[in-house]
Predict the structure.
Amino acid sequence: MNTNTSITTAEIDRWRAGLLDAEQSRVVQEALRSNESLAAEAQFGARLAAGLAPLPQLAARRTQAKQARRLRWPRVMAAGFVTASLAIFTLAALPLLSSHTQTPLQPIMLNAQTADAVQHMDFYEWLATHPQAMQDARHANPA
């Protein structure tokens, strides 16, 4: 039983890839049969390679999905531009549309009593602060 442990991980990888000549390949195979840790290391590489095998298929699907996604972006951009232009048009048109619906302010015509009250506002303020004078004015004799 040969316990040659001079085989490195790089040599195991080259053996697995088929890059070693016949003599070196035979030496690596004998080392793998005689040393369980090397065999486990070689099995780990085989399991890793088997686990990574579906990656090219996944990458191909992702590439196809990216192409489909690329075709969708112009439609999304166009919809965004349409929405933005409608929003800008609405905001710009609201002041124009609302100015036509309002009636212009008409000057308020005051009747004669209101005009008299406004002209004599100081008297009415004084009268409100002196309630006794107000009562006298109501009950006064027109003498």
About this structure: The first helix runs from residue 9 to 17. The chain has seven helices and no strands. The helical segments are 9-17, 22-34, 36-52, 55-101, 112-119, 121-129, 131-138. The mean pLDDT is 78.
